[in-house]
Automatic annotation (TrEMBL):
Protein name, entry field: Glycosyltransferase
Membrane topology of the entry: Multi-pass membrane protein
GO molecular function per UniProt: glycosyltransferase activity
Domain Glycosyltransferase 2-like: 12-174
Length: 311
């Protein structure tokens, strides 16, 4: 047992979705490395409504090992909510969130614990040094997303990941977040505290494929921005003002032409203007609409997730 962990309970929060095929092998691998590093912990799996035998695998692991527990969602709620349910459903002193597919390599856990001890950190934040094998589109999109996020919210999260080690104080604060739409990485950097980052190399996924399609990622990105800031709403106001100024100039010019004899022949200008203002209005309404739908979601005060079974 490493000294830092003496009289501290470490919980590994692992969301899983349709990972039945690889879960035993991945669990064995994580356990083997932790045993080698003399790290004791509680494995806490969140089955995010898997349709395969994931839950049966978790049950059998829990029967074999006293330090395995889990909860099962009644349906797929998404990884963000699974992480959230994970930290809410187990008591520990230290919480480590990681993927089940070994892409957050367990060999770094020891380093993370050491960093927490030596740097007196509250959060050890895993940052992807290399992004593993990703398509150009994916890489480009991720880069642009973090750029946009930084410019509208000020949150700097380049190559951030959900591979994080947090102490109890941080978790107690995270539990106070009651919103339904949350972006786990974002709220962790929002709460502050003493954050120490460390770089890790993303390993290849051995079995199956990523659950995040391009479309799902776009949705996640939009959701992240919307849940952090209302700046896009100000953007619509600014663009409104910009178009008003433009319209005034055009209006003056039109009147000038009217009084001083030049008949207007600029049909195309009219069409262009209609198109531009039309699209600006649609865009603004869309942004406002999305915020309103979020308010609606929040005021329904539904539970954020439904747990079907517990171990
Ligand atoms: N996951 C989940 N719910 C989902 C999708 C994924 O709990 O709806 C889990 C998945 O089982 C894995 C982790 O989240 O443990 C990361 O997912 P994945 O490897 O598919 O994503 P990527 O590596 O592309 O970020
Ligand atoms: Mg993965």
């Amino acid at each position: 047992m490493i000294p830092f962990l003496e009289n501290k309970q470490l919980a590994l929060i692992i969301p899983v979705y349709n990972e039945g095929k690889a879960l035993v092998a991945n669990f064995t691998e994580i356990k083997k490395i932790l045993d080698e590093d003399h790290i004791k912990c509680q494995f806490h799996f969140i089955d995010d409504g898997s349709k395969d035998n994931t839950w049966e695998v978790i049950e059998s692991l829990s029967n074999k090992h006293s330090n395995v527990s889990g909860i099962k969602f009644a349906r797929n709620f998404g990884k963000e909510i699974a992480l959230r349910a994970g930290i809410e459903s187990i008591d520990a002193d230290l919480y480590l969130t990681m993927d089940s597919d070994l892409q957050h390599p367990p060999r770094y856990i020891k380093t993370m614990l050491e960093l927490m001890e030596t740097q007196q950190a509250d959060i050890i934040d895993g940052v992807k040094a290399t992004r593993g094998k990703e398509s150009f589109k994916h890489r480009f999109f991720a880069k642009s997303f973090y750029k946009i996020l930084k410019s509208v919210t000020g949150l700097e999260m380049d190559n951030s990941s959900d591979f994080k080690l947090m102490n109890r104080q941080v978790i107690d604060n995270l539990r106070e977040f009651h919103e339904r739409n949350l972006f786990f990485r974002g709220i962790v950097s929002w709460v502050g505290f003493n954050v120490v980052t460390f770089e890790f190399d993303v390993d290849e996924r051995k079995e199956g494929a990523s659950h995040f399609s391009f479309g799902k990622l776009v949705f996640l990105a939009m959701s992240a921005i919307l849940s952090y800031t209302s700046k896009p709403l100000y953007l619509t106001i600014f663009s409104g003002i910009l178009f008003l100024i433009f319209a005034l100039i055009m209006g003056v010019q039109t009147l000038f032409n009217f009084f001083f004899g030049h008949a207007i022949s600029g049909f195309s200008t009219v069409i262009l203007l209609i198109l531009i203002t039309g699209s600006m209005i649609m865009l603004s309404l869309g942004i406002i609409g999305v915020y309103i739908s979020r308010i609606y979601e929040e005021i329904k005060r539904r539970p954020r997730y439904v747990i079907e079974k517990k171990l």
